[in-house]
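SAMPLE LOG
Freezer: B-3
Tube label: C17
Construct: single chain, 511 aa
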Amino acid sequence: MGFLKDRDLTNVPTIYEYYKGKTIFITGGSGFMGKVLIEKLLYSCSELDRIYLLLRNKKGVNAEDRLASLYSSKCFDRLRKEKPDIFQKKVFFIVGDCSEIGLGICAEDRTLIINRTNIIFHVAASVRFDETLKTAARLNLRGTREMVDLAKEIRNLEVLVHVSTSYANTNRKRIEEVIYPAFADWRDTLDICENIDDTTLNAVTPKYLGELPNTYVFTKQLAEHVVAEQKGILPIVIMRPSIVISSFREPVEGWIENLNGPVGMLIASGKGILRTMYTDPDLESDYIPVDVCIKAFITAAWARGSQKVSPTDDIEVYNCSSSHMKTLTMGEIVDYGKKIIHEVPLEGMLWFAGGSLTKVWLVYYFKVLLFHLLPAIFVDLMLRITGNKPILVKLQRRIYTANIALKYFVTQQWTFTNENIIELRGKIKKDDQDHFFYEMENINPVEFFKNACIGGKVFILNESMENLAKAKVHFKRMELLDKVVKTTIQVYALWLIVNIGFVKRFLQSVL
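STRUCTURE (predicted):
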């Protein structure tokens, strides 16, 4: 049975007390969710002993320099201001790589992790939808196997939090908080990926994926079964975030560092480079603010880690989604964006912010040619003439490719049940409410997406809010230009219609 069902937590320590003196091992700490997880742990569980981050040497930059670069992120501004030096005192790196055997960790560091670690957050993953099966399997599937093997050796392991995705079972319209049957044997899949040549493997991949849309979803689904085999053996919880977007409150309102999901759509539209998108305007978008998601991770680790694993324990699954809490349609998000962009315009708009959604592929394709490609060719031509590097056609190609990759996800509707995630927050003690209680029901969507747009300006585009007045002036100019161009085209189209021979002769005969 589940370790949370009907469980009395009266005598269990608070979340803050539970994390006191604990050593935590984190993979994926340099990513979007990883940074927020580290920041929240240090900020709200300051008496933890230490955090070890698995970092690989990347593009000529060693792990030590990457750790320093990670801390320079604006995500840690609150920490630097209120708890200076805590990062340097409590966060350490372990050189390794989730795509390597043994996680690429040397014998000395592995011994250190085995002897000291209490809590593992396995967040690392390849999230690219177009990754080859071999690459995705190496990180998402084999990396999970290697993490489980390490966890088995850890002497005082209290909990392993495995981060999956709500979209791991997209062949079902209603996705509950359970582990569904595997689409393939994970051991056979790894064997195939490691022993078949790349050309043959790439050729058979579409058939091998079956009902699942890409290698990311496929390997994440199989990875759940790697950890599921440890039922009653290892203290594991599976967290399934949906679309993780800007923060609601922490570490600061609107914190974001990628263009995934609806925030990226609003920013691209706000710049005037996204004029159309292939999706159903009535499709409900299931998103979750990153800080809501991270609070759930930390709380789930507390609930599982505060009770020893029993052979009868199930592996609890949590869909970190907004289903049954607060949902918006894609059309509503766009409408909010159009209102918000008047208040918080982006600098250097290439055209007036606007555009629309369509669920008709032919209409979408026509709009891409008319509103994306043709203007991009014209702008790049002007850039070449003035001696500048053309960029817009290349950018529009990336936008089009991204929309094609997302086609499967933005044209279908799923329902993610989240009874477990709601029950979990109900177990949070009164003393922990301020720091760890998570909610979606009372989030004001207008306020949230306004802060998300501001976050996009400040954290991604590096625009200063001090220049907002200038941005508004430019916005007005682009709005006027847009109206002039549209009116000119409409007048010209009307003139053509009136002056077509047949219409002209018809009007003359009538009048």
